[in-house]
Amino acid sequence: MTFPDDCRYTKDHEWVRLEDDGLVTVGITDYAQSELGDIVFVEMEAEGTEVEAEGPFGTVEAVKTVSELFAPIAGTVESVNPDLDDAPESVNTDPYGAGWMVKLRPAQASDVDGLLSVDEYKEMIGAD
User: Fold this and answer.
1) Cβ atoms within 10 Å, residue 6
2) Average pLDDT over the chain, rounded to an integer
3) Could you read off the pLDDT of 32-89 as tens digits, one per residue?
4) Sign of CA dihedral 36, 17, 80, 76
5) CB-side exposure of 127: number of CA atoms within 13 Å?
6) d(CA 81, CA 128)
7) How far apart are CA 123 and CA 128, in angstroms?
8) CATH second-level architecture of 22-111?
C-alpha cells in the first residue's frame, strides 16, 4: 500500500493534494480502494457545486458495496475526472494518479493544513 508524502488525509479515507494553481485534487486512498474491492462506477457532484467540509461530494460503487464520499474541506468543484466514466477501475489501479476524483477550489486553502499527515493516517489505519 502506498501513502504519498505530498498528500494530506481524512478519517474517511480521502486524500488531498494542494496543487500549484491553488486547487486541491481529491481521491480515495490506496487503503480505501483495497477495502472496497473492484470499483465499477463513480458518480461526482457537478462542476460548480459548492461542497461543505465533511459533506457528500459523490459516491463510489464497488462490486461489494456503494460508499458515499465526503469532502475533506469546503470549496467549489472546479473539475471532475472525466476518465472515470469509462475507466472507474483507475481508482483501484492508480488511486493517487489517474484515479483522482475531483478538483476543488478551497473556500480556505489553510483548511488543508488541518487534515491528517501521512504518519497520522498510517497510524489511524494501523499501517507500517
Assistant:
1) 9
2) 95
3) 999 999 999 999 999 999 999 999 999 999 998 999 999 999 999 999 999 999 999 9
4) positive
5) 14
6) 30
7) 8
8) Beta Barrel (2.40)
Mean pLDDT for the stretch of residues 2-6: 94
> CA 112 to CA 99: how far, in whole Å?
20
> Does residue 104 contact residue 24 with C-beta atoms inside 8 Å?
yes
Cβ atoms 12, 59 nearer than 8 A: no
Per-residue confidence band for 109, with pLDDT thresholds at 50, 70 and 90: confident
Residue 50 vs residues 33, 46, 47, 83: alpha-carbon distances, Å: 25, 9, 9, 22
Buried b (16+ CB within 10 A) or exposed e, 26-47: bbbbbbbbeebeebeebebbee
Cell numbers 465526503 correspond to what residue? 70
Residue ranges covered by each domain of the chain:
22-111
